[in-house]
Every structure is written in structure tokens, then in C-alpha cells.
Amino acid sequence: MNAFLSWPIEGEWPYLWIDATYLKERDGGRIVSTATIVAVGVNTDGRREVLGVATGPSEAEVFWKGFLRSLADRGLRGVKLVVADDHKGLRAAAAKVFAAPISAAAWGC
Predict the structure, then answer these.
(1) pLDDT tens-place string over residues 28-82
(2) pTM of the prediction?
(3) SS3 state of residue 1
(4) Which keywords, in A-to-Z order, does the entry hold (predicted)?
């Protein structure tokens, strides 16, 4: 899993689908809800790949920002359209991480 989460992302990835779901997990003898997010990209050749997966306590902006930063640090570039629900934390994080801010018109719901 670590190899998957650290492989370099090469080339341009203009389309990015991001979504989260909540899963139950054990934490110190308690059952807690944990956000699990997945990013799927489509490159300029039309190839679709899962680019990243992460888990965290919530969908707060700081969580999204860390996840998107990890993708950018691995080489994700050329994002022109993000398809996601209209989560304020995700929108704010994407605007901060990607070189060109993603306009509201570019967000798909």
C-alpha cells in the first residue's frame, strides 16, 4: 500500500474525481466514523487511474488540503476540472493547492 501511495504521478491529469465516504473503525475499543477519500484522475490520453486514497477524522479543509498537497507533491499537475460534491473544505483546499484556482464554473456536481 505504501508503494501505491508514493508512486510518482507523471504527465498531465486534466480531470479529477474526488469523493469521500465514512466508514466505521475501531479506535481504542470504540467504534468511530472515519472519512475515507479517493481521487481518480483521467490523463490526456484518456487513461483513468486511482491517484490516491486517504483516511482522516473528517472532511475539514485541512484534511483535504493535506491530501491534495500529497498528490501535487507526487507530481499531479494540469488539473482543469474537479468533479466532486460542493464541499466547502474541498473547494477551498483545491484553490490553495493547485497552481491555477479552479473556477466555480469548472466544478461538476
Answers:
(1) 999 999 999 999 999 999 999 999 999 998 889 999 999 999 999 999 999 988 8
(2) 0.84
(3) coil
(4) DNA recombination, DNA-binding, Transposable element, Transposition
Which H or E run contains 93?
helix 88-97
**Rounded distance between C-alpha atoms, residue 60 and residue 80, angstroms:** 23
Give the total number of structural domains in the chain.
1
Alpha-carbon Rg for the chain, nearest whole angstrom, is: 14
Q: Which domain holds residue 29?
A: 2-95
Q: Which residues contact 60 (CB under 8 A, 6 or more apart)?
A: 89
* Torsion sign over Cα 24, 26, 32, 34: negative
